[in-house]
Amino acid sequence: MSNTTNLELPYLAVGQALKHVRVNETLRRLDAVVQLTVISASCTTLPGSPEDGAVYVVPAGKSGSEWSAFANWSLRYYRDGAWQQITPREGWLAYVWNTDQLLSCTGLNWSLFAPGKLQSLSAGDTLVGRLSSGAGRAEEITCTAAGRALLEAADAAAQLATLGTWRVLAACAVAASLTGTTTETPLATITLTGGAMGASGVSGRTLMNNGVSTTAANMHQRTYQNRNAQNAQVGSASVLGNSFGANANWPLTASENASVDHPIVLSGHLTNTGETVTLGSYVVEVAHRA
Description:
Distance between the termini: 73 Å
Structural class: alpha+beta
Oligomer: single chain
Helix content: 10-25%
Shape: rod-shaped
Number of helices: 3
Largest sheet: 4 strands, mixed
Radius of gyration: 35 Å
């Protein structure tokens, strides 16, 4: 054998004359294939002024008097003013400079390198993003088809379409009280995600103005929705009234841009500082309509 098996590095023969020639040939080949980085794996035209040491993957459809003689998907190595062909082996990895991709040699051509599956990681490897008990351990995470569809949804509207038409946006049973001030003060703020209701919510409008004096408790409900567009809404009246049944003040209309996030603010406003108002609980529901 005159060359090594894998990298085909030339051996020195017994009594080798001009030994430096053979040694330098080996060093050049190592320089080309160790930590393999190629300029391009898609360039088909012979470069006019390649830099010494440049390496390319020769694709099909190549042109040029020197490249056309090379085998498809071989490596072309420019050194000392000439191109040399290097035949890669199956399993070689090459970083492609112009696309920032890592390719692997299949033996016949090159393809994007596919890293190992998650379950091949050891228990000591970290998995970024887990906040549950045992975070930092690698585990296999299996999603149902619906779960994958939810992860792939482009925005809140697409997620709602995956989840269904209705969901609870927010709910709280922790009481929040207001006393000692006559300034209207927020007791709870819920963000309505832009586009969450589809084209069929109102911001900057008073949807419920429930004034009470000696009432010990009151449960109220108000509804609002987009009216076939993201900037046209209709809702129940902003005056005290029954939550259900006839209401002479229907409807309240608005023209807010519901395609962007808006706050839903539940606030209290006292007549004098000696009073107290308490928000006992609330539930905010949203229904998405295309």
